[in-house]
């Protein structure tokens, strides 16, 4: 796994990523949906495992799950599981911030 720096620090990430507003990030052609929920970050594959819709166009509910805009499948952001088991788990990506930057692990 390689850590890819996407922001200079956590403050910059907090400034650029709004709570519960999914953001599409593209790294080396890989589409990743980055979400900040209650000031914690999670990253999952952007393509819905049901039929490929972009999850970054979806919404985040109060439980911190992301809901696909197409057929409303609902995925946990931490483990990537669809809550009713209707489609495969999403790939998840670790996120970390330290003195040197804000990173996603690819
Ligand atoms: S494409 Fe996401 S729920 Fe169908």
TrEMBL record:
Keyword Iron: yes
Source domain of life: Bacteria
Protein name (record): Rieske 2Fe-2S domain-containing protein
Essential cofactor(s): [2Fe-2S] cluster
InterPro entries xref list: Rieske_2Fe-2S, Rieske_2Fe-2S_sf
Keywords: 2Fe-2S, Iron, Iron-sulfur, Metal-binding
Pfam families: Rieske
The organism of origin for this protein: Chryseosolibacter indicus
Family in the record: Belongs to the bacterial ring-hydroxylating dioxygenase ferredoxin component family.
Limits of the Rieske domain: 9-104
């Amino acid at each position: 796994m390689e850590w890819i720096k996407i922001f200079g620090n956590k403050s910059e990430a907090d400034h650029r990523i709004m709570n519960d507003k999914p953001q599409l990030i593209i790294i080396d052609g890989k589409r990743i949906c980055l979400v900040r929920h209650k000031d914690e970050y999670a990253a999952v594959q952007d393509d819905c495992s049901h039929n490929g819709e972009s999850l970054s166009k979806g919404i985040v509910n109060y439980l911190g799950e992301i809901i696909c805009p197409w057929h409303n499948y609902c995925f946990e952001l931490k483990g990537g599981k669809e809550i009713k088991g209707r489609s495969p788990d999403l790939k998840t990506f670790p996120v970390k911030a330290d003195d040197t930057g804000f990173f996603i692990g690819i």
